[in-house]
Q: What sequence folds into this?
DNA sequence: CAGATATATTACGACAGTCGTAGTACGACA
DNA sequence: TGTCGTACTACGACTGTCGTAATATATCTG
């Protein structure tokens, strides 16, 4: 089965989450849905990974949390990206380009598309 | 700064090493030099990371080790890629394409340049 | 010759991030 | 009442990386 390995994503989970917070605050469950949808189902982040990322990023000052005012249901914790978070995000984007280029020096792309299996 | 984070490479160290073994067997020190050179100094793998990758991959059957016959100097442990290792390598290459596409959905590229390439 | 330097590998423990598992909590619907 | 979907938290295991250091040999330098 060829899914994507979360080992690769590892260094980019924070970036992915921050991307989804760029335009407006959001909360865990919604973000996980958005990741799934945007990746066309190819990447489904684990809940524990997601929430531990929130904790880490809040500690780092990349996001801040606040409570929504929904009255019913379990109370949501929303997260808003900070300026520091924005800066970090765009740095990671630059880093991605470099990293991608490095990795691709070691990757052989099959041009004759023999996709058996 | 602007190095590449090894967190990203994490899932691809094995792939990088296997790539360098595709054509001929090699050993730790040489591989680390090759990685440095091929990446134009952008990625220098840590020794411990490299040798622990050897151990892991040998356990997984992706490589086999043998001793070189050099008479002087410290004895080298050479590694040769196995068929299983080759298969794994090419799977990781395919996976890379998928993973790269997924990550790029969450990356904003500043495109002041041309859309060439 | 002694000491630094480059080559070449191994051992050990710390750490970060992910993941499995499970539990809490609430609303809605059948 | 029970289950499903939503929403979050706790905890411990595991894997891979990394810092540090030790071992071993050959070559270069003064």
A:
């Amino acid at each position: 089965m060829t899914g994507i390995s979360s080992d690769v994503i590892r260094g980019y989970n924070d970036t992915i989450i921050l991307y989804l917070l760029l335009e407006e605050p959001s909360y865990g469950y919604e973000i996980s849905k958005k990741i799934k949808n945007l990746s066309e189902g190819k990447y489904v982040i684990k809940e524990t990974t997601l929430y531990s990322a929130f904790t880490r990023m809040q500690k780092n000052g990349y996001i801040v949390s606040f409570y929504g005012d929904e009255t019913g249901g379990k109370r949501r914790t929303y997260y808003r990206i900070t300026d520091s978070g924005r800066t970090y995000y765009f740095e990671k984007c630059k880093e991605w380009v470099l990293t991608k280029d490095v990795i691709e020096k070691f990757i052989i792309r099959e041009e004759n598309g023999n996709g058996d299996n």
The CA atoms of residues 1 and 42 of chain B lie 11 Å apart. Residues 6-7, 10-11, 13, 46-49, 52-53, 56, 72-75 of chain B lie near DNA strand D (CB under 10 Å from a C1'). The mean pLDDT of chain B is 88. The helical segments of chain B are 6-9, 13-21, 28-38, 47-59, 83-104.
